[in-house]
Design goal:
alpha/beta, single chain, 7-stranded mixed β-sheet, 13 helices, 17 strands
Length: 426
């Protein structure tokens, strides 16, 4: 992608710290060869030679980061969401994912997914594929061609799943090695990530093998953690030696530390598990809509933030029915209110500014210096046209942004999208 140098002019909104929103009316965001040079109320003289793209009064925000989404489940959006997690996996998810052994089907489905993700507010994502290596490679190519930045995982599982998706343990490791050797460094914007499906679907031998690959290839890890009460009980039955769900991953070197790790959900993480998440620097991908749809529960995000744990947001399609990160932010706020009202009134609900931070800088940190307009950050930006939301009241930048979150799907329009300084919208 061409990483140009330019300045964007408009109503600038971004976060430096949790809970605080920086705004500039008719301000400038400066990009030099893909890297942000900062946001300014007046364009500094040293940048006056750069082309200025004037978006008038439109909102300009950092790109949004989806820390947890399943690409092969995209055709199943909105189906079977009256079921709980384990039943839903058996009835809908595993049958759908088994289709990706057919490359004709996989190409059609992944082309649609990549195009729709490009057309969304998401600029970067951490993505599950399936066990099928050829399909995973095609997904990586499609995302790279779309100009999106992503981690994509070839899923590993050798037990407790649909027979069509059950891998031989050694063959699973061998296929993963072949996939890593072919894809590491191949794409400009897409990288591989190790992906044990979740502990119940992985034998100890498979987890040990994946841990060995992490040490060899030094790549990150993604999986699921403490999403559902039945799932947690199942993990204890399968791994009776474990002190908590996270202990299973940690035993095999797949839980933070040298292995940069993101774990989705963490709805029911025990005190010990929370301590290990914090100690090992594991990222939590909060997936509020999925946790509602599959009747899992409400993750105690305020507690994690108070502990200093790294948290971002995930749509978790198709457990979550929507790819919209705007919807994800609103859902995160809504479920935090329910947690406060129904479970623990000492844990105050998320504010709009905090949800925005999680969707930008919070999740962006998994990719490095991403998710802000501070100097030195990679230049991901969305230009939002809220012209159809005009009413009789004059709103300030914060109010306009908050309203956009709630009305994005009805009246919002993305006018431009930049990833790493490259315009991928036009």
């Amino acid at each position: 992608m061409e990483k140009a140098s330019f300045a964007l002019k408009g109503t600038i909104c971004y976060a430096k710290t949790m809970g605080e929103l920086e705004t500039l009316d008719q301000g400038y965001v400066v990009c030099r060869e893909g890297i942000c040079e900062g946001a300014y109320p007046v364009l500094p003289k040293e940048y006056e030679g750069l082309p200025v793209i004037d978006y008038k009064n439109m909102l300009i925000i950092p790109g949004l980061v989806d820390l947890h989404i399943h690409a092969p489940q995209y055709p199943s959006q909105g189906l079977g969401l009256d079921l709980e997690l384990l039943d839903w996996l058996k009835a809908h998810t595993f049958p759908e994912e088994s289709r990706y052994g057919d490359m004709e089907y996989a190409k059609k489905a992944y082309r649609i997914f990549a195009q729709d993700l490009k057309n969304s507010a998401t600029t970067r994502a951490v993505i599950f594929s399936t066990i099928h290596t050829d399909a995973a490679k095609f997904l990586m190519e499609a995302l790279n061609d779309a100009g999106l930045v992503a981690f994509v995982g070839k899923v590993n599982m050798d037990q407790n799943c649909d027979d069509r998706l059950k891998e031989d343990t050694d063959a699973s490791i061998e296929a993963t090695v072949s996939w890593l050797d072919e894809t590491l460094g191949k794409y400009e914007t897409v990288r591989p990530i190790l992906t044990p499906r979740f502990a119940p679907s992985c034998s100890e031998a498979l987890l040990e093998g994946l841990g060995g690959l992490q040490k060899k290839y030094k790549i990150p890890v993604q999986s699921h953690l403490s999403e559902n009460l039945s799932e947690i009980s199942w993990v204890k039955e399968l791994f009776p030696w474990s002190s908590c769900y996270g202990d299973v991953y940690e035993r095999f070197g797949l839980f933070g530390g040298e292995a940069k790790t993101v774990m989705a959900h963490c709805v029911y993480s025990s005190k010990e598990e929370v301590a290990r998440i914090k100690q090992n620097g594991v990222y939590v991908a909060h997936c509020p809509q999925s946790n509602m749809n599959l009747a899992s529960g409400i993750a105690p995000i305020r507690k994690y933030l108070e502990e200093g744990i790294a948290v971002g947001l995930g749509t978790d399609v198709a457990g979550g029915a929507s790819m919209s990160m705007f919807r994800c932010m609103i859902d995160a706020i809504c479920v935090s209110k329910l947690y406060w009202r129904l479970l623990d009134q000492s844990k105050k609900p998320l504010t709009m500014e905090e949800a925005f931070y999680l969707a930008t800088k919070g999740g962006g940190a998994f990719f490095g210096k991403v998710g802000s307009f501070e100097k030195g950050y990679e230049m991901d930006a969305l230009v939002l046209d809220d012209g159809k939301m005009n009413g009789v009241r004059k709103l300030d930048a914060k109010q306009r942004l908050e309203r956009y979150f709630y009305l994005a799907e009805e009246k919002g329009r993305i006018a431009a999208k930049y990833v790493g300084g490259a315009d991928i919208w036009n």
